[in-house]
Write a structure and sequence with these properties.
By secondary structure, the protein is an alpha/beta fold. Helix content is 24%, strand content 23%. The strands form 3 sheets. The chain has a 7-stranded mixed sheet with strand order 1-2-3-4-5-6-7. Strands 8-9-10-11-13 form a 5-stranded mixed sheet, with no helix packed on it. The longest helix has 16 residues.
Length: 240
């Protein structure tokens, strides 16, 4: 995939960097005060992420804050290339698993014998805020896919960065070891009360039909609870 196809400017100074393979998408916000990266993606995709940042006029050290939507390796894998100069932020439930190296849950493995411990500098709570000047981000705790899943709501443009919580079309991600279908349904029902113009998920396509997608996700989750057939579940994980 060429750089031209990998990077999409969604709003002024807000970019979608498409993930390679099963790696998560990343989103870059050039803030008036700080530059933010939402999800760093797979460890092995770091060189591609670095090249994308350079295409945007940013060096790795120009990223001030990395916000992880949850604790899975395909979203946190490249954190280690940022953590010595940027603040790494994740919900406190995700932070615990990342910092104690709970690799059963995170599945993180870089293959580098000299890899540093992953750090989390900001242990986030529900309704935490990041004021970037031109953009304002609110953290919404949305357990379900994992216990530490969050969505990031941009208040000015009503964009929702969903990680693996909501996908276009309402396709379900698998419910992980620390997750819960009950929590998932509750989280989506809570999100559906928000005014959202666009969903920006961790994988797949963006969506401009968030209300329909969330209702479909709730229906799929309830059907899964009843063991009904025909529910599409996508598992983006790949243990390398």
């Amino acid at each position: 995939m060429s750089e031209g196809n990998r990077i999409v400017e969604l709003k002024p100074n807000l970019y979608w960097i498409k993930g390679n393979g099963t790696g998560s998408h990343s989103y870059v916000i050039k803030g008036d005060y700080k530059n933010v990266l939402i999800d760093s993606g797979l460890d092995r995709n770091f060189s591609a992420l670095q090249q994308s940042l350079l295409s945007l006029g940013l060096k790795v050290r120009d990223i001030d804050i990395v916000i992880n939507t949850h604790e899975h390796f395909d979203h946190i894998g490249a954190n280690r290339y940022f953590q010595e100069h940027a603040l790494i932020a994740a919900h406190r439930f995700a932070s615990i698993k990342i910092t104690v190296e709970d690799r059963y849950v995170t599945m993180y493995q870089s293959g580098d014998l000299n890899e540093p411990l992953l750090k989390v500098h900001l242990w986030l709570e529900n309704r935490s805020r990041f004021d970037l000047g031109n953009y304002s981000l609110e953290v919404i705790h949305t357990p379900g896919h994992t216990s530490g899943s969050v969505c990031i709501y941009e208040l000015n443009h009503r964009m929702l960065f969903t990680g693996d919580t909501v996908f276009a079309g309402g396709t379900l991600s698998y419910i992980s070891e620390s997750g819960s279908l009950g929590d998932y349904i509750n989280s989506i029902e809570m999100l559906s009360t928000r005014k959202i113009s666009e969903l920006c998920p961790g994988h797949g396509s963006l969506s401009e039909t968030p209300d329909d997608d969330m209702q479909r996700a709730i229906q799929n989750a309830r059907a899964l609870l009843k063991d009904e057939e025909g529910v599409e579940i996508t598992d983006y994980r790949e243990v390398s």
